[in-house]
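It is worth pausing here to work through a concrete case rather than discussing structure prediction in the abstract. The textbook approach is simple: state the sequence, then state the predicted structure, then interpret. We follow exactly that order.
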Amino acid sequence: MTDPKNPFEMMMAQATEMAKSMNPALEKFSPTDAFKGFEALWPTMPKEVMEMMFGNTVNKDGLDAKTRLLITLAGLTMQGAQADSAVRQTVRHAVAAGAKKQEIVETIGQMSVFAGIPAMTRALELAQEVLGEEGDSET
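Step two, the predicted structure:
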């Protein structure tokens, strides 16, 4: 193969061209901007929706929404907290599901052992943005 592009770049270019052919307005579409818009549109979902989507429908005796969201937050931290909107939304949802500030901080802090200090620090910064919005003073 003589093309210097990697397969991911080629796939993204092909998907972009296909999207433009279906809808010319998508030429200027940015996934990053789309996530910010979604975050502003629906910063949290109702607890009942979270319970339905994250467990009660599939496994009534399984993990509750708060636990599932703390696990999700741990996973997002492990990824290096690259998805700012996803981290912020998960923190908002965890708070809505009953998670305390201390539980959120401990969940992120525990990941420092596995993901490293930079990933933990970034996730804590994002969580603090949300916890500051929420006015949660509970530790």
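Step three, interpretation. The longest helix spans residues 117-134. The helical segments are 7-22, 31-41, 47-56, 65-78, 84-96, 101-110, 112-115, 117-134.
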